[in-house]
Amino acid sequence: MSALEKAAKAEGTLNVIALPPTWANYGAIISTFEKDYGIKVNSALPDGTSQQEVDAVKTENGTAKAPDVMDIGMAVALANTNLFAPYEVSTWSSIPTAQKAANGEWVQDYGGYMAVGYSSKFGTITSLNDLLSAKFKNAVALNGNPTSANAALNGVMMASLAEGGSAGSISAGVSFFQKLKAAGNFSPVSATGATIKAGTTPVVFNWDYLNLPSYVGVSNWKVFIPSNAVLGGYYAQAINKNAPHPAAARLWEEFLYSQAATGGQNLWLEGGARPVEQTAMQSNGSINSSAASKLPAVSGTPVFLSPTQSTDAANYLAANWAKAVS
Amino acid sequence: MTAAATTEAGARPLRAGRRPSSLPGVPSWLGTVPFLAYVAVFLLWPTGIVVVDSLKNPTGAWAFSNITELGNPLVRGYFIGSFKLSLLSAVAGAVLGAILAYAIASGNPDGVVRRLYLAASGVLAQFGGVTLAFAFLVTIGPVGLLFHASWYYDFPWGIGLIYTYFQIPLMVLVFLPAIDGLKVQWREASENLGASAWQYWRYVGGPLLMPAFLGALLLLFANALSSFATIIAWENQIAYIVPQQISTALSSEVGLSNVNVADLLALGMVIMVAIVMTGYALLQRRTARWLR
User: Fold this and answer.
1) B6 contact A CB<8A
2) Domains and CATH numbers, chain B
3) What is the pTM of this model?
């Protein structure tokens, strides 16, 4: 570990990509890493998508500005494993087997459950069907086009689970949004911090860690996870196999998976995300329990989409989404 | 008559004379090389890549069957959407912009009003994207400050209205010189011959301005066709126009990305512009016939 630290400091720089500073506490994570190790972090394209991360790895391959590490959606990660360098962090055993590649070419890092965030002016929502009532006119938004954005696809899938569908079929979710559209309640504006603050998207389907009052920037904001529809989604870390700063990249991973009070796992938790080592940290006591207690309450068994289920859902949406809601 | 005098001065013919002779031994076409090189690198080359890649599959092998994808009803819908939106906003922008340009041209050519409108048009023609869509959203959207336009999200009306916000100033900028070229004497001559205002516009002013008007209309159409950031901020959960679908094909996080499909859609836009340009050239030949 000290040899790795020394080599990383000699490289002096780390290239990261697509890490918005307000997302899952990345602003603090980057500055803590810079402060702890004296390594400068170049953050490219903070609002980029997973696909853009992969594109940058390919187009900038061999240059000094190529991304060293990626924080990437699972669908894109699984399609591009040939770009990754396998690496096992020292806390490897704390990561559930289902959430990492056996050889360590990708490892899930943090995630959350799909949730409905809403302005408290609507009172309390207890079921998705509440959203069909007249007071939600033009109010309910996804976070992007579900044929393109992973969070939006999972939003539709969560509605599907709540409507009695299964992870193998998203059609019940599309029907729900069709009903929402027919009721005049579906807002086609992509929810962002600005639209939430302006009040144009007062109800938003998004991951719970992106649906927190602190993240969206309004105080009267509540979060609701339907009990029969707990849909989990985790991002994954991967190291560029041709990283221009290979030691800094591996030190960054060690930092992100560290269970220390100011390590990556607890920093993600403070940002409202659920770190992948959460269960292990709860049993060994290293977790920041006050941050953990602020996470939205969940009841029911979480569902995770398999790659096949995810692809089936995307293909169904490509053919049916536009028809249902336009 | 000051207005006429100024117009007269502005329209004076170029002084006759020989062009400065070129340097001995330097061929005259050499001067066009930078322009041609620029066009080759930034227009022909990328277009070539788009055409070639649109006929390949993701592994790099030829796949001419890709072209049948353009007949897919979903894909056709994006092209119809792009055409509707571009046509609506171009026609609305061109008509309203032409009227505004005429009003500006009939004012004092050195006046504050003219300078103010031209400066504002120069700025507003470039106003677009997230800021513009958001400005409309908070003024006339569902929770708008001014009023709640229930049709705000109806394609292409809501987004068409937003587009006219930059189309009208652009029309003013490109069409004003044409109106300035109309000489007051022509109007006076037709009035002396007993022409009514309608007859003047039908037989003199209209035919004179028509080639410039159609050219400006085409520019506005292309401007709307290639706009992307504004509609993405207006609404981004359904793809209505081709650039939105190109974005999905390039950067879908859920496994629907396919660069070759993006190339094919871009090729479709090139074909669409080629068709419109051909139609424009035919119209132009007809409307400008009297000039020859």
Assistant:
1) no
2) 73-291 (1.10.3720.10)
3) 0.79
